[in-house]
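Case study 2.
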Amino acid sequence: MKKSLLTIASLCISLGSFMTANAQRYITEVFPSFTKTANVIYGRNVTILGGAHLDTLRMDVYQPAGS
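Prediction:
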């Protein structure tokens, strides 16, 4: 029982320190400028709700400027 509690406590402490380290990830700006390409088609999806038809899947692509 004591060993189980010790294991759980150490996992909680490890998880807490991991989450704190990752919280800093999006604070510092990596690329000051970027180019955006909108509505790039990357696939099709079959939709069966309301009749079978194909939906076009689109995404926006962000790239660092100058690459």
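The chain has one domain: 2-64.
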